Amino acid sequence: MKAIIPVAGAGAKLRPLTYTQPKALIPIAGKTILSFIVDQLHDAGIDEFIFIVGYLGEKIQEYVKQTYPDLTCHFVQQSERQGTGHAVELTRSLVGSEEVFVVLGDTICDYDVKEVIDSPYSMLGVKKVDDPRSFGVAEIDSEGFIEHVVEKPAIPKSNMALVGLYKIKETEFLYECLHHLFEADIRSYGEYNLTDALDCMMKRGARFKAFKVKNWFDCGKKETLLESNATLLKKFGGYVHESVHSENSIIIPPVSIGAGTILKNTIVGPHVSIGANSHVQYSIVRDSIIGSYTNLHEVVIDHSLIGSDASVKGLSRSLNIGDNTEIDFG
């Protein structure tokens, strides 16, 4: 089985942070979003990955090659973002007839990966949501088989949202349906969507079973990214690297603090992730994600995203700041 991970999106809802960094490489609870996905799949036995890259794709390639030198990795360029269906179709020559597990590049979920992989059926991950109109939606029968999927329905017939996890056994069938979308120019909201290809497969006889994820950590926008960071820190307990230098400072767990970071006269936590080699002085930081090589001086920050190589001085409350930024509130 091969894993397909589309990571070509621009992450517009997380700008300005994503102007210089792919969304998949944003740190959360001590790891990147991408590492959460790859580690989960690799631990379950998958060792061949296809990454669909586009915006800042060279950073994805560099990160994967450095972090996972022993994995078999392929990189496919999606020059024009025309939807998830278009992205997956680009992998056809690399997949052939082998089973695939497609995981969207901003999807961190809590589920039994091995159980899904070993299932004799194609499987789609679902989660009950209050308002399914912003998601792909699955209509499921009494035996757990999916009868129909539709992308962002105006009047949903189900509240079971597709979470971005797709294990597909009949891959030749999948690529036939993707080709059909292009031939017939079938689009949802202006894009060739994977959901439409899956529905095509179901209409032609393919059987998909739903599996419910225990947790779905939304990393698509600032508010939900910070919530996911807090939840994952609570779940895994956080980690403070042994090289962190703390002088007259208080750390309130759970937090994740990277190697070489210096804390001086500072309170950090709870629910804070700080990258490597950052300096935080005379500050209070809580419920935030801070990048690497960032300097914070005399600030009070909560519910904030601050990129790498940034500098913030003075007093602030809630920020969303990209990389290579300098702000002085003095």
TrEMBL record:
It comes from the Bacteria. Coiled coil: none annotated. Gene3D superfamilies: Hexapeptide repeat proteins, Spore Coat Polysaccharide Biosynthesis Protein SpsA, Chain A. It holds the Pfam family NTP_transferase. Residues 2-234 form the Nucleotidyl transferase domain. CDD domains: NTP_transferase. Keywords: Transferase. GO terms for molecular function: transferase activity. This is Glucose-1-phosphate thymidylyltransferase. It comes from Filimonas lacunae.
